[in-house]
Model the fold of this input.
Amino acid sequence: MDTFPPVTGIYPENEPRLPLLTASEGREAIALLMQLSDSSPEGMVADHLAHMIAMRMPVE
Done:
């Protein structure tokens, strides 16, 4: 099965960045990504993306 290349976190300078809509949606996205996290290349990307999103979440 063909897969998309992993997310690198590097985006074009002119690409607009949009915030997550709500804190609860951010937490749900992190939870889903952590469930997808494993030792496969895709799972490692999910883990990395979850951590990058978590770092941007406000502290409660």
